[in-house]
Amino acid sequence: MHTLPQQLANGLLLGSMYGLIAIGYTMVYGIVQLINFAHGEIFMTGAFGALTVYVYILPDGTSMWAAVPLMLIGGGIVSVLVAVGAERFAYRPLRQAPRLAPLITAIGLSLTLQELVRNFYPGADKSRAFPSLDATHSIGSVDITDADIFLVCAAIVCMSSLAWFVRKSRTGRAMQATAQDPDTAQLMGIDTNRIIVVAFAIGGFFAAVAALSYGLKYGNIDYRMGFLMGLKAFTAAVMGGIGNIYGAMLGGVVLGIAETLASAYISNIPGMQQLGGQSWANVWAFVLLILVLLFRPQGLLGERVADRA
Amino acid sequence: MTETKSPATPPADATPTTATRGLIGLPLPAARALLLLGGIATAASAFLAWTWTSDFPGDLTVYGYPGGLQWLTFVAGVLTALFALASYGVRGLRWLLPARNNAPLVLTALGGFGVTWFTAIEIAAKLGGLANWEPGTYIAVVASLIPVIGAFALPQEAGESTKETLKAYIAKPEAIPAPQPIAPWIQRLIITIVAALGLGVFAYGIDTQYGEIFIGFLIVLVFAVWALHTAGLLDRFSAMVADNRSFTLAMGFLAAIAFPLTQTDDHYANIGVNILIFGTVALGLNIVVGLAGLLDLGYVAFLGVGAYTAALVSGSEFSRFSGVQFPFWAAALAGAAASLIFGVLIGAPTLRLRGDYLAIVTLGFGEIFRLAVNNMDGVSGPDITNGPNGIPSIPDLKLFGFNFGEAHDLGGFTIGRFANYYLLMVLVMALVVTVYRRAADSRIGRSWIAIREDETAATAMGINGFRVKLIAFALGASLAGLAGTVSAHVTYNVVPNPYQFAGAAPPNSAFLLAAVVLGGMGTVSGPILGAALLYLLPEKLVFLQDKSLLAFGIALILLMRFRPEGIIANRRRQLEFHETGQLDVPETTTLSDEPAVTKAGA
Amino acid sequence: MRGTHRLPPGRKCLRKGLIVRKRSLVILTSVLTTGALTLTACGSRDNGNKSGGSSSGTTLTIGVDAPLSGENSTTGLGIQYGVQIAVDDANKNNWVPGVKFKVKALDDKAQPATGQSNATALVGDASVVGAVGPLNSGVAQSMQQVFNSANMVEISPSNTNPTLTQGKDWQTNKSRPYKTYFRTATTDALQGSFAADYAWNGLKKKKAFVVDDKQTYGAGLAGIFNGAFKKLGGSIAGTDHVNTGDTDFSSLVTKIKASGADMVYYGGQYDESEKITKQLKGAKVNIPLMGGDGMYATTYIQTAGQAAEGDLATSVGVPADTLPAAKSFIATYKSKGYKGDYGAYGAYSYDAATAIIKAVKAVKDANGGKLPASDQLRSKVVDAVQKSDFDGITGKVSFDQYGDTQNKQLTVYQVKGGKWVAVKTGTFNG
Lengths: 309, 602, 430
What we know:
The complex is a heterotrimer.
Chain A: H1 4-32, H2 39-57, H3 64-91, H4 101-120, E1 128-129, E2 136-139, E3 142-145, H5 146-168, H6 170-180, H7 182-187, H8 192-218, E4 220-221, H9 225-240, H10 245-265, H11 278-295
Antiparallel strand pairs in A: 1-4, 2-3
Chain B: H1 28-45, H2 69-88, H3 103-127, H4 135-153, H5 162-169, H6 184-207, H7 211-231, H8 233-243, H9 245-258, H10 266-291, H11 300-312, H12 328-350, H13 355-375, E1 398-399, E2 402-403, E3 408-410, E4 413-415, H14 417-441, H15 443-453, H16 455-460, H17 465-490, H18 509-519, H19 525-540, H20 548-562, H21 569-578, H22 586-591
Helix pairs in contact in B: 1-2, 1-4, 2-3, 2-7, 3-4, 3-7, 6-9, 10-14, 10-17, 10-18, 10-19, 11-12, 11-13, 11-17, 12-17, 14-15, 14-17, 15-17, 18-19
Chain C: H1 9-52, E1 58-66, H2 73-93, E2 99-107, H3 112-124, E3 128-132, H4 137-149, E4 153-156, H5 163-166, E5 181-183, H6 188-202, E6 207-212, H7 216-232, E7 235-241, H8 250-259, E8 263-267, H9 270-282, E9 289-291, H10 298-304, E10 312-316, H11 324-335, H12 346-366, H13 374-386, E11 390-392, E12 395-397, E13 409-416, E14 419-427
Parallel strand pairs in C: 1-2, 1-3, 3-4, 4-5, 6-7, 6-8, 8-9, 9-10
Antiparallel strand pairs in C: 10-13, 11-12, 13-14
Helix pairs in contact in C: 2-12, 3-4, 6-7, 9-10, 12-13
């Protein structure tokens, strides 16, 4: 078990990434009760936006200190534009439609975004190399890279500023109001359309942060990266209590750690030798989700309705 | 000369307002003449050569008779002309335009225009330049534009903006005069003709050899059906169907059986059987989603359970139980039962969850099924399913000495292997449709709808929500399992890959859900139509090569954008809301219900 | 009633004009129909001359079935264009005088049911003489029987599952289930053993960590390597399985690091192995990763970058740069700007299509220089493919009694200086 600290760190890092993406699901869901299945693809476009800045805009040999913020801006712009565009042109016309119609639109949108990138981004039909930050630091028995540090810092900064924004800012409080009761909120003079756009935009930006971390950590991106990450992030959002921003982060971390530990140690349990390993990890992740929901049907932090945003 | 308002009083049967005029300033007779003559000219232009080389699919190089896409232009032209004649009030055709409105004329004209210009542009694009147009192409391009000009010259009450006016042109009128009572035998005759026509259209669509003609087919079909809808003919037909429901079902069934007899090539029976399998599963999902309002994102797993069960007891030498060979009825029952058990196992703990929590849990179960099956090969899991290698060499079915694997001669027709399975699936589909209709009309079915609309209220009225939902889940699951048992034999093998959440080809859970929503939730024909469309679109879009998925994704978005309530459902809801004398249709009230627009259960 | 209504003069004019236009249209139409029929006749004859070339121009079709869209399309397109180049070469060099070939490529989206429907489509098309594909073994299972019933040859460039040709008991009692199914790819058995041999004897590795992607190809390959490496005396430090599409392998990397393995063997495609090697080297575990021909692609090096250095892959046949034909294949593929990746299976597809084309020639020659009737052509081509014996671009192309390639030549490649370099070529007869 001497690998436990390292595996916990692996899980925490993976989970932070899930959490950042899950914010997008949870904010949109909290306000319009829409599962934006295309959010994984918004994450993916953010990665390609960041890569575009690095490969096609910045001169060769730019220091990563300068490049990373610029890539974040590039990725953020792309993700936010895609997210807001999806809201404006795909989801908004369907706001009065039957509840499942936007879900099908989301599936179509997801396919469209993937295929757009695959067909029209140079070299994107295969994995594309991404500048990675792989200088390693050892803390005790745990090795982490610069990219991991970036990821953790970004997650903390993002979460705390979002918490401040939702609680303190005028728009944030309007979001809470809209989440609780859109009709009343509108009567109180809140422009709910604007609030929905803001929710999509914040979700998109967080996805871009996650996407940049992903690229820096794994050193490559491809057009399919959003599918599985999106699915996991959605799971995380539900596990944490969908609609709750802290829940999304907590769900992400729990899911990431559970997956990593399952992959690493289940096969050490007597009688379960064959049920361990990475190919079963997703099974255990979903089993955990089901267990959580059985005992807490509203998710881990689901009851704090007041914090829904 | 100033083109002022015509001093002539508009004809009595045109739109009533006097101050109407067309977007294009032409007098009414001219507009009608343009429509009629343009329609005829469009149809005639199909007899000319449109290009010089047979490199363009369908060989459009022949003078004297239409070929390929030209047939579609021809049909559209004839339709336009027929509607134009009907607008003249020609005896015998007046029934085409009961409301005397513009929309059918506009839409058929647009259909002809669309398919002709699509073909012309496609010729130019594919062969490289307008030089590949023959004089016939120019004639066709001009001829198909004429009815459009005529159509928009028809007098129409102007809206607030041009956009509104355009909308008014293609709108269905509020009131459509009630039809003359028709003798029952005539009604049945009409239904028979429509069923035969439907079979013909469907067979034509499936048989389209290349993507271009399928697109053309869709253009003409969409505009033609839309035109019939706005003319009020579809509503009339629905009313007729409602009066002769059993007869219609029988005719539909007969038409479905007749399909393989119209085919010379087993390939289309193969497509047909795949569509039927996909459609059956979609119908099963419709019970869960459409009737009970439970969002299930892992439904394809039940198809997989059925398929794997059938494979394990099929006697395949690769099966874990290779000595066991159940007769088909037993295998089908076993598959359905296994799916039912899985449905209950999954449902029992999770159905207490509401709305979207249930969605993610079912999604999780679907993934668990696929991953578990993929791992149970004795290396990284118990040895049951043969893991990624799947279970191949599943033998063909034999029922009462009838070998499904061989071609049989039946009164001059050859019924190939896939046609055999197709006919079997028609039976299964008939069974599923019956179960669906009986269930929907039963006490349980009404409870489902009550739960779907408002769970709290339904529970307060004494409905045991959990039990009712569990029944929906189990019933839906066992129907999918039943379809799975056939599908295992059709493809000779089962592998874990197809049973995923989302993929590029049916069946997968996302596609199944899309088939239900696209076709129309809570209806019988909707999911089947949706399944056919979703199966055929990727298949026929192959000519777009690696852009086919992109086109498919965009098509999904657009379909939902313009038809969010599904292809079938909206038409029936309109029947409910707008009809004057035909509300006393017992079945439609249950079958046409829209899913809750509210957030109930979300 | 309405017709008798008096029209204002302007309108009358317009209406008249319309009739005139219509009349001229009718005249134009009739002139065209009667007159231009001859023109079209000329046109089609002209067309025939252009494409036919020789007087008895028959065009036969070679079907392709592979995933051409979505996930596996990069590899699938490599198969399609591999066949396309073979067909172009055949037409250009007039390999079969009087017969032209064309390609009909169908997309199976890696789905068995779709693949089967493509198989029935190819069987139903009378001009199709044989098919190349599919990519996935699971798809092949649903297609084999369809082609077998139609007596049509199917050659897969990539299926590696031994049971496809040698039956369920391929280890003990081989028997061929379908006589029309062939493959130019080798089975997992050969490659896995060859790799184990090189790892033990060539690299002197003692402890291997074996990972696979739980797909037919990868799991089979990893299983064979595992057994063969142990038989040679090596020890297995651990095994794990991943899912295709996984991106985070940090847990796996930690496990490998803790196991003290001195190499990793990966059974699967480059999509996952390029990420594993990158994350492995990122965690400062500098041991080589070895795999099969599924990761022998330039993409692997491009994506993994520096981390790929020292990694190994086995591939069937002799290195491409020792055969001029193979070099020209790669040059053609690149110059035509074809999409997809020829690396993994493009060359096998070329050889598969060539085997069909050569079989058509053999059938034609044996039949006194003309093609037999279409119902016999297919079954005769199957027999002729069975007797194939020529030098392809992956080496010698000939099939044994099970339909497997007899090309037992294998090459180990290693990434050196950002390129795959052949380090050992040999035959494996184990």
